[in-house]
């Protein structure tokens, strides 16, 4: 049926995206000046030592062979070993991923919980106190840098009123403040879009039809208009979630959380080629996957998209 | 007029006699304005209009003449403010309700909408919800107004699709509006309007957005349904050819006032009001081939600046001095017609 074909098409697109990104990363790494073997073996290594490191890395093989091997590694999610610690990059990533995932889930949930109800109320009662509050919230939310908000939250809710731990890991409570700092900014963006989208839908002709049918105002607004208004909101929320899965470098830094963001940041500091390379591919795969899921969800709520 | 119109004239014998059933709608002295002070626009200035069961009453006028304000007011969807209903009454007699619609509570008004008074709009593509299946858009009416549940609602919806010529096809029920053609969408729109068996149908230019062959099909469908359900229809249009094809009675509206009203034959065969006469003369027609088409000089006044006296006087070739000062009252003429003009029967200038 049309729907299955649509999903298949989007899945092929997902694979193509990952392939293209992997290819770009492969060549970028090889174009960047500097031989990883030299970095690993050290400045004063002998030619034999360098050659053996190259053999170990596989960089002595023809570039075509390297490329095929690289793609094979990606299919197995095998990103090689970290150049610094020697641990497999995959393990390093999978160790950190649960924290990043829960942080992203909590952050986006908080964002949605704040933004969508407030956005809808703002649109339905335009120019009311709710609306002004909503607009103020989103203005402030977009203007405040998240690290500043994070520090502010720490000062208030961990230092002055010690409701939540200052840093570290271990319980749900450790994640509340970081998730709040992440979610606040997302909420600001989602709220704006929800309000604008709902205002637009409420002015559409089918809303007049809904009223002419004798439906109650609740049905007109929340069954007919909201359904259409949420279509663009789902996309934006999904993309925001995709970003968050790549790790939140600044927030993780402020709260000393060992998430993906910090892992990759240290990888860059330490010139850990394999880690950075694996990290970029991983983020690309996760982001494409989230986009794929958003597309599927989008087509469920917006039947028109399946045609194109 | 055109061949198309002449065709239907021949089949006119099968047309309902009109004006036979009881009154379903009676608008009396309706006044509606927008805004206040300087920008006050008197969109509707004392409209009287009566529709009987099984009768198709066409309200004809140019855009900005108050047609849509009148119909929206009957439906109870005129936003107040900015609109102010200054005076008048809209008497309605249907299945379960009777009385002045303007005196109904908001909730009672809502329950008559869709159930007793239904509306078909101009552009079905825009007036159907793009994110809801056709079936749901029909069934929600059945559930809300008639208490249908589950399978019974679906069964009923299928029957209604059959009635509007879409067959008893479940695939249509499961379609989204964008999957249907323009003609099918308008049929769905009509299905939604008639599914609760209303006493009054308001059709606001229902065929304007369709191409000509589809127009005829949709008009035929509306005519069939009128007989089948014995509905009164308020048909809003600026297309005189269409009106001539289908109307029982015609009211011509100009600048928020009905200037002439009568049976279709009275209006089309011997129009009395100068505006009606010019309007009919300005329609292209095979019989007028080779002659210069009549145009009405000047333009439609906007509601903020309607002329004093008879609003048509600045464009009227018959206008006298008092036309600019006094408003001509509606005068009952022979038969069932009436017209508002001081110069009725006056010789047309060469």
From TrEMBL, chain A:
Keyword Cell cycle: no
Membrane topology: Multi-pass membrane protein
Localization per record: Cell membrane
ABC transmembrane type-1 domain ranges (all copies): 97-298
SUPFAM superfamilies hit by this protein: MetI-like (SSF161098)
Family recorded in the similarity comment: Belongs to the binding-protein-dependent transport system permease family.
Recorded GO CC terms: plasma membrane
Keyword Phosphoprotein: no
Keywords: Cell membrane, Membrane, Transmembrane, Transmembrane helix, Transport
Name recorded for this polypeptide: ABC transporter permease
InterPro entries: BPD_transp_1_N, MetI-like, MetI-like_sf
GO molecular function terms noted in the UniProt entry: dipeptide transmembrane transporter activity
Organism: Candidatus Thalassospirochaeta sargassi
Coiled coil ranges: none
Pfam annotation, one family: BPD_transp_1_N
Source species, domain of life: Bacteria
Transmembrane segments: 12-32, 101-124, 136-163, 229-255, 275-298
TrEMBL record, chain B:
Signal sequence extent: none
GO cellular component, one term: plasma membrane
Predominant subcellular localization, coarse grouping: membrane
Gene Ontology molecular function: any one: ATP hydrolysis activity
One of the GO BP terms on file: peptide transport
UniProt keyword annotations, A-Z: ATP-binding, Cell membrane, Membrane, Nucleotide-binding, Transport
Membrane topology of this protein: Peripheral membrane protein
Region (Disordered): 1-20
Record domain ABC transporter: where: 25-280
The keyword Nucleotide-binding is annotated on this UniProt entry: yes
Compartment(s): Cell inner membrane
Similarity comment text for this entry: Belongs to the ABC transporter superfamily.
PANTHER family the record matches: DIPEPTIDE TRANSPORT ATP-BINDING PROTEIN DPPD (PTHR43297:SF2), OLIGOPEPTIDE TRANSPORT ATP-BINDING PROTEIN APPD (PTHR43297)
Name of the protein in its database record: ABC transporter ATP-binding protein
Source species of the chain: Candidatus Thalassospirochaeta sargassi
């Amino acid at each position: 049926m049309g729907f299955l074909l649509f999903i298949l098409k989007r899945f092929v697109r997902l694979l193509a995206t990952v392939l293209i990104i992997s290819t770009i990363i492969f060549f970028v790494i090889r174009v960047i000046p500097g031989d990883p073997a030299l970095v690993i073996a050290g400045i004063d290594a002998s030619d034999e030592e360098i050659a053996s490191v190259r053999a170990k890395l596989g960089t002595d093989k023809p570039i075509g062979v390297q490329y095929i091997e690289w793609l094979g590694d990606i299919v197995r999610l095998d990103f090689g070993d970290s150049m610094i610690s020697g641990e497999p990059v995959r393990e390093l990533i999978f160790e950190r991923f649960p924290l990043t995932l829960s942080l992203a889930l909590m952050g986006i949930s908080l964002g949605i919980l704040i933004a969508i109800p407030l956005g809808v109320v703002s649109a339905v009662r335009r120019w009311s106190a709710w609306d002004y509050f909503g607009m103020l919230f989103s203005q402030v939310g977009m203007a405040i840098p998240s690290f500043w908000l994070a520090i502010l939250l720490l000062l208030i809710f961990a230092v002055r009123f010690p409701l939540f731990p200052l840093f570290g890991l271990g319980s749900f409570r450790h994640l509340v403040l970081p998730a709040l700092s992440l979610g606040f900014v997302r909420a600001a963006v989602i709220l704006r879009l929800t309000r604008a989208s709902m205002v637009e839908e409420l002015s559409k002709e089918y809303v007049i039809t809904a009223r002419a049918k004798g439906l109650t105002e609740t049905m007109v607004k929340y069954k007919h208009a909201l359904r259409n208004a949420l279509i663009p909101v789902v996309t934006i929320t999904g993309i925001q979630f995709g970003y968050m899965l790549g790790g939140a470098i600044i927030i993780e830094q402020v709260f000393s959380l060992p998430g993906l963001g910090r892992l990759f940041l240290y990888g860059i500091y330490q010139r850990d080629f394999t880690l950075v390379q694996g990290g970029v591919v991983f983020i690309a795969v996760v982001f494409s996957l989230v986009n794929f899921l958003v597309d599927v969800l989008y087509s469920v709520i917006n039947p028109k998209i399946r045609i194109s | 007029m055109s061949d198309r119109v002449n065709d239907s004239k021949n089949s006119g014998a099968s047309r309902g006699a009109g004006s036979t059933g009881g009154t379903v709608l009676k608008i009396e002295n309706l006044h509606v304005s927008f805004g206040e002070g300087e920008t006050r626009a008197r969109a509707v200035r004392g409209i009287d209009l009566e529709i009987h069961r099984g009768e198709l009453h066409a309200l004809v006028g140019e855009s900005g003449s108050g047609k849509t304000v009148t119909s929206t007011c009957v439906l109870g969807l005129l936003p107040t403010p900015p609109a102010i209903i200054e005076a008048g009454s809209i008497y309605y007699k249907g299945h379960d309700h009777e009385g002045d619609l303007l005196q109904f509570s908001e909730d009672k008004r809502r329950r008559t909408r869709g159930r007793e008074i239904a509306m078909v709009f101009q552009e079905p593509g825009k007036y159907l919800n793009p994110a809801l299946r056709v079936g749901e858009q029909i069934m929600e009416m059945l559930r809300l107004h008639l208490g249908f549940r589950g399978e019974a609602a679906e069964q009923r919806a299928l029957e209604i699709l059959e009635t509007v010529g879409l067959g008893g096809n479940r695939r249509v029920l499961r379609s989204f509006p964008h999957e249907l053609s323009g003609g099918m969408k308008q049929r769905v729109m009509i299905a939604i309007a008639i599914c609760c068996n209303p006493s009054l149908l308001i059709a606001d230019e229902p065929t304007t957005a369709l191409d000509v062959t589809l127009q005829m099909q949709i008009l035929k469908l509306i005519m069939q349904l009128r007989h089948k359900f014995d509905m009164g229809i308020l048909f809003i249009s600026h297309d005189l050819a269409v009106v001539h094809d289908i109307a029982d009675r015609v009211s011509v509206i100009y600048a928020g006032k009905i200037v002439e009203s009568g049976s279709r034959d009275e209006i089309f065969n011997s129009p009395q009001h100068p505006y009606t006469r010019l309007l009919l003369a300005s329609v292209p027609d095979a019989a007028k081939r080779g002659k210069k088409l009549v145009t009405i000089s000047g333009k439609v006044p906007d509601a903020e600046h309607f002329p004093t006296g008879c609003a048509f006087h600045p464009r009227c070739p018959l206008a006298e001095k008092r036309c600019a000062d006094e408003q001509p009252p509606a005068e009952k003429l022979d038969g069932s017609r009436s017209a508002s003009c001081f110069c009725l029967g006056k010789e047309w200038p060469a």
